Amino acid sequence: MEKIVLASANQHKIKEFNEMLGGNFKILSLEDIGFNREIEETGSTLIQNAKIKAETVRNYLKENGKDYPVIADDSGLFIHVLGGEPGVYSARYAGSHDDQANRDKVLGKLENKLDRTANFECVICYMAKDTTKLFIGRTYGEITTEEIGDTSFGYDCIFFSSDLRKTFGEATAAEKNAVSHRSRAAEQLKKFLTPYNRNFDRTLKFNK
Predict the structure, then answer these.
(1) What does pTM read for this prediction?
(2) Which of 32, 67, 73, 74 is catalytic?
(3) Which helix (H) or strand (E) holds 105?
(4) Are 118 and 143 spatial neighbours (Cβ–Cβ below 8 Å)?
(5) 73 catalytic, yes or no?
(6) pLDDT tens across 123-142, in order?
(7) β-strand partners of 139
(8) Helix, strand, or coil here: 74?
(9) 178-207, pLDDT tens digit by residue?
(10) Which residues contact 119 (CB under 8 A, 6 or more apart)?
């Protein structure tokens, strides 16, 4: 079973990636590799932040004589009438990593707004040796006027999924994983990680 480091200490995310990538890969957390530094997400886009996280962890592994591939993701909620806010700042929209405060700020800004359409976007960066790949997944819906369902994770309880016809907060893990932005990006990653696709990609790079 191949080991891949996920640039996260979030157990919810570790569990999600293990479920989405199936039993072919062992996902290691930052804790598993002894990484306890703060990664400063200074990018202005999801792509930049995903690359920063992946590169930081890859450099740490090299410093410690290890050569595991690294995957890093960055996600955001983009609300159309707010010009794409909270976007890259979704996790700290209200000033800190406080899910309730972030949701309250979104609902407050959308008060009396008719257009509540939104989408989640996830960028996954895969980095291994001289290979860097980006995978982007999106899921669409709208913001509800109140919290519905499980309130324990991010914006799930105020995002009404166009696919599921319910909020992510009401959905089971299996339902959410079938249509989420992260699962759609992860599905592309999983296809790339199959031996045939990786070998094919290396052949193309070599022939160039």
Answers:
(1) 0.87
(2) 74
(3) helix 99-109
(4) yes
(5) no
(6) 999 999 889 999 999 999 99
(7) 120
(8) strand
(9) 999 998 999 999 999 876 455 545 434 433
(10) 77, 78, 138, 139, 140, 141, 181
